[in-house]
Amino acid sequence: MQTIETTFESQGLRCAGTLMLPANTVNPPVIVMAHGFACVRAMNLPDLAERFVAAGYATFLFDYRNFGDSEGLPRHWVDPKRHQQDWLAAIQHLRTLPQIDTGRMVLWGTSLSGGHVLTLASQGIAVQAVIAQFPHVSGLATLARLHPLTALKLTAAGLLDDVGEQGSVTSLPEDGLLQSDTPGAQDSGADPGARGSYRCRDTCICGAEGGDENFARRVRAHPLQPLRAVRGSRT
Taking the model in full, what pTM does it have? Predict the structure, then answer.
């Protein structure tokens, strides 16, 4: 497997991406992957991507603007419209790369990004398949299922965040970066070279303890049978 670190521009800011290529495969199909709510590509996405690479696919993982290795302030800015702009920029970037067959492109999303890839596909983006893992598609439906006390807490957090935008609350260091937003940031005592030793110190749905590891086990338990048609098709 070959791994290539690359960058692309989205709305004037640099976004970071990782292209993973299978060995001994010429112009493989590519699966584009980005995380859901408030996570970065270093958080277990490489482990999942390796499963696709082992099956003969290239994978491209990227960080949204304001996240991970990508540029942009304030950090950790979750905005579906901005994220979808970054998806489009990533797709456009991939279409310039000679190592992959961009005529056989798959979009992979989970949670919030699952909603993103469904939205992009519905808009007629030229891809051959979409993988949407428990996609988030309706904020109103999600709120309707919340306990009233939880909804109040989330409303309070949103108001506090809005106040912070006005400059009344300062939650970031001067460089605008948080330790948890640095891929490869290690817990004390962790092996710096160990895959999976990254830990998010912020509240992060998809980074919940054991969450990504459990999903990885489910991927191993269910081979990627439905995607064989994509790999074998050049239409």
Answer: 0.68
